User: Fold these one by one.
Assistant:
Number 1:
Amino acid sequence: MRTLILGLLFCAIAWVPQAHASEGGGFMRHVKVDVADKAALQRGARDFANYCMGCHSLSYVRYLQLEKPLGLSQDDIKKYLIFNGVKVGDPMVSSMPAALAAKWFGKAPPDLTDEVRVRGTDWLYTYLTGFYLDKARPTGVNNVVFPNVGMPDVVENLQGAQVPEYKEITAPDGTKEKVIVGLKQVSPGSMTPEQYHHWVRDIVTFLAWTAEPNKLEREHLGVWIVLLMILFSVVAYFLKKAYWEDIH
Ligand code: HEC
């Protein structure tokens, strides 16, 4: 019986989902993404290709890799995702020369393949919904989770312009500082806040997939391994019982 209990305990431990690292403090919005949602992945890939790939690459992903997980044919990929004439077997690299981009924006736009693994889905969602007007910046905007960001607000026409809402707090050492506690829309975009939320969530879903393209397969395999372990524990229990019967 002990073998069985130990086996089940072990399975339970293996079952506990991995805790997500969360960034402490500050202004952070939360989003739920489902990398098994093919329609969301398709929309996310399309919007990424249209709005982000002018500057950012996904160098570790080849277009062809999108075929199965996103349920796209090679023709779909060529038609909806490739605008610079490269082949479907090529990596998703932006046509913008990095040196030129660095000159224009002060920083080269980084590769975003692993962005979700580094920053998390909540951070990325907050970043893409977190641009606000700031006259002090050369781009005219700042970002609530990325102070003094070099990226222009490429989504302003969709989301509309925002201004921050501040609250004064007193730090433990007695000094007062202003922190952003919210963002208020001051001019409308082409999307309603609800539509914009879905638009950003799709891009975050797509980038969650690029960061871990094999996650789904691994999870399926994990379920089978746990079931197999339970089966072995049961077999071990009966085997042990059978042996002890002979001895008694
Ligand atoms: C006009 C060029 C341009 C476009 C288009 C653009 N970006 Fe950026 N992006 C930049 C630059 C430049 C930076 C670097 C900013 C810095 O380090 O200050 C950046 C930074 C970022 C970062 C932060 C990376 C980090 O350091 O962790 C994310 C995330 C990001 N972009 C996502 C996107 C997404 C998603 C889109 C499409 C909706 C997009 N960007 C479109 C230029 C662009």
Note: Residues 73 and 157 are 31 Å apart (CA to CA).
Number 2:
Amino acid sequence: MIVLVGGIKGGSGKTTIATHLAILRAASGADVLLVDADDQGTASQFTAMRNEKLAGQAGYTGIQLSGMAVRTEIVRLKSKYDDIIIDSGGRDTGSQRAGLTVADLMLVPCLPRSFDIWTLAKTADLIRQMLPANPNLRVSVFLSRTDPSSLDSAEAAEALKDAMDVMTFIASPVGARKAFSQASAAGLSVTEFRPRNEKAVAEITTLYDNVFGK
Ligand SMILES: Nc1ncnc2c1ncn2[C@@H]1O[C@H](COP(=O)(O)OP(=O)(O)OP(=O)(O)O)[C@@H](O)[C@H]1O
Ligand SMILES: [Mg+2]
């Protein structure tokens, strides 16, 4: 499956989710390609750090692509991998659009604040423009970096209802937990990082199951 983690909002947790999905998918035995399609190169930096930490055993292959190459290289590489995860930047870029022409699923992390939820209307417009090029594209939105004072899933789903023709809201929130930033800073996933934060592990596992099936 080709999963693009995207949206048009910065800092929503895209790289955190993309790297976690790559690690968890690879740990299940799949041959995984992680495509860093964000010119900031955060996912590539993470992979380099991870390879350094684990003596070259990141578990997946990481590459960086930009612009139309996101499409052309993925079309060429897709038969060589079981799954491809694309980390796109937090803006409407040519790289993200190129990725959306080849993705099976677009996964959109959304911060649980009104302003961020409202930008989903713009993301929905982007998807409507891309659907003719990729009619099979599915889009799932979930709340990212939630805390106890956040909008809950029901409120977010209500705020999202005008965009529901092109996206599905999935109730797999990922909490704002130090474990995610600590694990990422160490080149690890929360499933690998010690001490293990069971809530973080449960949240990312539920999201993973939602994306790849149990
Ligand atoms: N669930 C979480 N809990 C705590 N911290 C998080 C969580 N998700 C992400 N972060 C932290 O928030 C910051 C932004 O996360 P990340 O880089 O994954 O977002 P992004 O959407 O990829 O950003 P950009 O739009 O710049 O690419 C990072 O410092 C990361 O460690
Ligand atoms: Mg990022």
Note: Residues 10-16, 38, 40, 42, 89-90, 145, 174, 176-177, 180-181, 184 surround adenosine-5'-triphosphate (ligand 1) (CB under 6 Å).
